[in-house]
Amino acid sequence: MEETISLKELFGTLRKRLSLIVIITLLAVLVSGIISYFFLTPIYQTSTQILVNQSKNEQSTYDINQVQTNLQLINTYNVIIKSPAILELVKKDLNLDMTAEELNGKVTVQSEQDSQVVNVMVEDPDPQKAANIANKTAEVFQAEIVKIMNVDNVKILSKASVQDNQSPIKPNPLLNIAIALIVGLMAGIGLAFLLEYLDNTIKTEQDIERALELPVLGVITEIDEQEDFRSRAGRKLNGRGEAVGS
């Protein structure tokens, strides 16, 4: 019985504060949409692929041991690609107005699982600039790895390019709006319950019972003054002292 009453009170609180919940949710969605479409800078991503293969100095037949060695080297290569030794040269060749640390934040290196292919991905507000950085990074790495590791087993599989009407990878306005909808709804419900908890005014006989822990013996009904006035006027006496009206 107590659980039923509690549920009824919960739904009653939500119903009473429904307008507040709806307003907060709509405001959250509206703010999220405005920020996503008008204030956040679109970020584009381009990528190039590098193959870590057999050294040119060795025979061209397939060697499983060489493949395993190349796979083990990939983690090392991933670190070298984002190192200042490579990025400083990329920055110099492209005449980029940024530090090596800033360039490092734009570059992501990811190796395909159980393969010798490495993806070099670059994010930038300018898609053409992102493609130039990705391609130059791959070229510089291919040239410098010979000096750094004394091996020549890197080949560029594909170069980054800019597609027509390329879409940015972020922000995602629809996703942001969906998240804002959920957050706004949760915030509205939380605020509704908070206001209900802070409201200690007595409105019903049930509030009196909870506050005084005493049963209610009677309730005085609310009297409408205008209705009471019309009722009194209807009972006026006529000239012979007889009551008139209902």
Automatic annotation (TrEMBL):
It is found in: Cell membrane. Residues 142-194 form the Tyrosine-protein kinase G-rich domain. The keyword Lipid biosynthesis does not apply. It is a multi-pass membrane protein. It comes from the Bacteria. One of its GO terms (cellular component) is plasma membrane. The chain crosses the membrane at residues 20-40, 174-195. Residues 3-94 form the Polysaccharide chain length determinant N-terminal domain. One of its GO terms (molecular function) is protein tyrosine kinase activity. The keyword Translocase does not apply. Signal peptide: none annotated. It holds the Pfam family Wzz. Keywords: Cell membrane, Membrane, Transmembrane, Transmembrane helix. Belongs to the CpsC/CapA family. This is Capsular biosynthesis protein. It comes from Peribacillus cavernae.
